[in-house]
Amino acid sequence: MGYTKHIAVIKGLKDGFSADGGALSGLVKCERYGSKLSVSVSLINFAPLTEGRYVCAISDGKITEIFDNREYDGASGLDISSGFAALICYVNAQVSAIASAICSGYRGSVSEILREVEKSELIKCDGGEAQAAAVEEYSDEAIAEVNYYEYEQAAQSQGAVCAGESQTHTRDSADKNEENSCAKEKRGGKRPFYKRVQSEVEGILKTYPAETEAEKIFENSRWVRIDYGEGKYYIFGVLYKNAVPEYFAYGVPAESETPPESLGGLASFVPAGNGRGYWVMYQNAGTGDSIAPATAKLI
Length: 299
Hints:
The protein is an alpha+beta fold. The protein has helices at residues 110-123, 128-135, 148-156, 181-187, 193-196, 198-207, 212-217, 293-296; strands at residues 2-9, 11-12, 25-33, 36-44, 53-59, 64-67, 71-75, 84-92, 94-103, 166-170, 221-227, 233-241, 244-254, 268-273, 276-284, 290-291. Strand 3 (25-33) and strand 4 form a beta hairpin. Helix 1 runs antiparallel to helix 2 (128-135). The longest helix is centred in the middle third of the chain and has 14 residues, at 110-123. Residues 129-189 have low confidence and may be disordered.
């Protein structure tokens, strides 16, 4: 029975929802084993709400699952083997798409996911069934107040800190990692991957506090610490060679060399002394390829 796991990093699409005026970020972790789908969403720097709520949706281009409380765990026909798109919406009288995460070979429309969330919210209201059916008949003029094109362009330009961090394997062959399909495309691009995502990466490095411990471990690198509540955090870094980005990296603090189940087969352990360290995932900054853990040990 196949097991598939992807991780994507969130990027903001709409201003006005951050806690400090900075960038929205976070992680979307999606796992599928057989017919069971598990999704966990960590929202970083999203403003606390006094009214309304955040709603998350994830899609494979055909099926969309919508959920509150930032977690989904149950049976689903959603197929993440070729990637997914996640959309975070603010709901209060109307639905606003405020952030997204696109992973691997996903080729669906972010605006279609937004429409599905709108329909779901209408169904919850009195008379919602009829209103939801009418959403299918929207014309461009009828929804002119919603700039779907803007959402689409912003989501498709995400690049950096999203699509590259995905691995797919089977339980019976955990050592066999499938190559990220979106990484294949990036090889054929005219510019190196890090050039296309330069502004996003620089924004993260400027927004969050430096993680000096990691900078001491990795030569020629810059790292920041990204907190996401209740004392939890992860680190993001850029490893340079001759002043040019060579790898992007994402690290989770660890107390031992035994990997947490959620990172098995995805990350390699980097010791920091006193029994501590980080489980780190790497991404080739030139191509966007994920780096297999066995290879990453050589970095």
